[in-house]
Design goal:
heterotrimer, A alpha/beta (about 280), B alpha/beta (about 210), C alpha/beta (about 425), B: alpha/beta, Rossmann fold, eight-stranded mixed sheet, four-stranded mixed sheet, 6 helices, about 30% strand, C: about 425 residues, five-stranded parallel sheet, two-stranded antiparallel sheet, 16 helices, 9 strands, about 40% helix
Chain lengths: ~280, ~210, ~425
Amino acid sequence: MIKRILSRIDIKNTFLVKGMHLEGLRVLGYPEFFAQKYYNENIDEIIFQDVVASLYKKNNLPSLIKKISENVFIPITCGGGIRNNDDISKLLINGADRVLINTGAVNNIEFVKDAVRTYGSSTIAVGIETQKIDNKYKVFTESGRTKNDIDAFEWIKKLQDIGVGEIILSSISKEGTGRGFDLDLNEKASKVCEVSLLAHGGAGRKEDVYELFNSTAVNGVVIAAAFHHNYFSELLKKKEISMGGSTSYLNSENFINNFSLNIKELKKYLKSKNISIR
Amino acid sequence: MKKKLAGIINISISNILSIKRSLEHIGFNVIIIDQYQDIDKLDLLVLPGVGTFKEAMKKLIENNLLKLIEKAIQKNKKVLGLCLGMQILFEEGEEFGLTKGIGFFKGKVENFNKYKVEANTLIGWNNVRFNNKNKLLEQHALVANKFTNNFFYFVHSYFVKTDDENIEVANSTNGEVVYSSIVKKDNVLAFQFHPEKSGENGIILLKNELINL
Amino acid sequence: MKNKNLNPMYGMPSEVKYCTKCNVTNQTPTTTNEYEHDKNTQQIPIEFDENNVCYGCNVNEKKWNGKVDWKEREKELIELSKKFKNFKGQYNCIVGGSGGKDSAYQSHTLKYKYGFRPLTVTWTPHIYTDIGWKNFQSWLHVGGFDNYLFTPNGKIHRHLTRRSVINLLHPFQPFIMGQKNFSVKMANQMNIPLLFYGEAPSEYGTKLIDEKKFSTKIDISHPGFTLDSIGSTKIEDIKLGGETIRHHIDQGFTLDDFQPYIPIDINIINEKKIENHFLGYYLKWVPQENYFYAVNNTGYEISEERLDGTYQKYASLDDKIDGFHYYTSFIKFGFGRAMSDSTMEIRNGHITKEEGLGLMKQFDGEFPKKYEKEFFDYISMTKIEFIELCDKFRPENIWVKKPNGWELRNPPWEYFNK
């Protein structure tokens, strides 16, 4: 099976945002422009994550997804504050193919069991945000704010036992940094995980993605910041944004982050290295 | 030129919005059908499918939709089956015990996990190999050349392999299993994959198969 | 909700209000001269305008609304750099800091972008956290700076901290006094007349006398933000931890013990023309960008866990008693850590007002459990004693005692729901 290349779009208050270690969210533009652009650049799938839903305990994603997914004919996964079947239904009827549950799963695994029964395994994905604490990979919830005394690998086993169709594994210490993936984490996870496993956190150079596919058995990679950095300045021209400090990065002349990836070039490079992709 | 009308059968909560949009994108007007109704005005009937073979057949019978599908086939309306929608067009499926399907195509739907496969549940992009041999299917071979690659998006744990070479337009592989990914007979066409989720390939395929009805 | 007969404390207005834009409470103090600070001191609350928008918001508004010509401001910084280029000596300015995201950004930008030759100076936290020490080291060894670290006599520091808690419920006072003075004393000692501070305190609601730098004016009616001084007060009469030095001496200490806390003579500052400039005057201060900058340039790392009493884990990480500083502020003013963080982020356009309300509701007032043992050991007090002490400092216009415990009488999330 080919390796999947996904993009993750974090959304807050109708903006696309991106932080580092899940902190400090910078606004980089409007999600609908990025989604359309990534689709045109031949991305395989897109994950939309509402990063503020857990705080408000309400979800604005369904209406946003309905609008965004209009001309995007690839699989769409949506996450953010999903706590019950009603949340799931709302997303599916508005254009999501799969939902991503994170905090909701840790707080109530029965809900996930029921969701799998109701909607099917392949519709239910669980996101795991993890960080190494005292040599163990612990699971974090609420956008990285709450540490749980749960081992990430044990958690993967538990989730696949109840029929979850896909695991999206995020490294908190790597995400947003562009410093490369946590290969140790992904290698260990791919040994334990029997369902589809996607790695997220750390993509900076195309070599990082190659290394990930070459040294672990993950089924695909999720890339956020690296793609956003590549396309945001051209997409900025489509519609103005003003939100003070969150957008000051957009207007500054010296961009502090200097890592970025072009989707088409990445795919070309991986193909040349004999990684089978679309 | 008057727009063609497509009806999508809806029996469970799933993303049929994307199917609706892809059809609208290629020029159809689309309605959603959740109970028996008159199909005279329809040019195309779509059977999407999420869930299990057993559940799907049960719901179709309960809502009198099985009758509607059979009528559409009988009246020579174009019928398009997608994913599970393709599977229920076959004779029977073994998910949760043997269930009888619509029986339009010959074959039995089986579970991947009985065989040596790459994945018991295939989620992702798989290669679709178009059958170049059969002259009846030459048209499709031409279509195949329009794609940038032959990857389409699949999500399934069950598969069907038809014995009838004349109806298998394309097939795909999962480990040691070769299964049918596009079948066609008379006015009925079915895809195991999701064309509405297969990027530009999917749109091109839908356009070519459906637009000249 | 009018609090007719409910008395405020600390010189605050009796009616509790919140800023329409950032949610800050009007019970927030701005500047205090710590050397005169005792239990009767009336502080200066943050000002709200006729639209109930706080002074901090109005100041921040100017950062973004195009009224400030940032290019011109930057030119001034470049001029300043040119002026000090040939200053004799290895260093031509002092930057005080701890290696947190703000001092990392400041020192690095001044050195590598604007060509200054900073000497960094640090007054140690009460009790270093592991991550605080790590970031301090990274600042110097990854960022690339020389540094003087001053550690005050722990016996004295602890004594003053305990007295500050008992008299003022203000555990951070010794640190604040020491830190503020230290940079200036170093400037004097090293004969370097130029210092840089981070953001202008007006961004937090304090009225400034001079928008470019600390003022040396002593104006009792309008203190602005000054380099604290004792003016003409006799040394024995100045207060540390809410008690006069004379009182401390009576308890067995000596005047020398308290030298690190006593500010430099203002005449020396004026003679040597020592100036402490706000970098936020010259360059637009965006705290969140400082974070990204620090991670990318000085090896800054965030805390493993969310900090007690707030939602974030990327700022203010280095002192184990940080949590109690914010907790006591919550007790006295209803100004908790989540309020402190969220008001700053709202003013800088990072989060919305609604998010701020949600975050404060969830996190403000959370007891700082993580290092409570270290804190109580440090101030030689039991937890029960501390909690009872706290209750003596709760103003009745802010707090109401319910069967389940103390609650904010009119919390911001309810205030705005009317």
